[in-house]
Design a protein that fits this description.
mainly alpha, 6 helices, globular
Length: 138
């Protein structure tokens, strides 16, 4: 389903998106929750569909405007995906996917593939950073 070459082309954008969406902060380990959020995005899309998956990930979007980067929000994953697929922000991505007609499965599938590829690129890039592992023994 996923073309390796397409994903490889997204890696640089994914790395930039991790920083711009405040998932990765300079000199601070990445919150481990983001690895789970990003890894689970593709499975969520496959299980419940792209529109429902984005709605689920966007449910805490209102907290992003005044939230602190140290609190993990799933909407930051949607923000990172929006950066990769060149949408203005997470709301623009969500609105554009929700505007797709339900009876046009070709369009929905194309958008789903694009977002799953972007999430795979995010997953590959986030694992290049150090995580804040609270359970780790020193």
């Amino acid at each position: 389903m996923n073309n390796k070459i397409n994903i490889e082309k997204l890696l640089i954008s994914a790395d930039n998106a991790l920083t711009q969406s405040e998932i990765v902060l300079q000199n601070i380990p990445v919150l481990k929750e983001y690895d789970g959020y990003i890894s689970g995005f593709g499975a969520t899309v496959i299980n419940i569909g792209i529109k429902a998956a984005l709605a689920f990930y966007m449910k805490d979007a209102t907290k992003l405007t005044n939230g602190t980067p140290k609190i993990p929000y799933r909407a930051r994953v949607v923000r990172a995906l929006a950066i990769i697929v060149e949408k203005a922000d997470e709301r623009a991505l969500f609105d554009s996917v929700c505007a797709l007609p339900d009876d046009n499965q070709i369009l929905i599938h194309a958008e789903m593939k694009k977002l799953v590829d972007a999430s795979i690129a995010l997953k590959l890039m986030i694992r290049t950073y150090e995580f804040n592992d609270k359970d780790k023994k020193d």
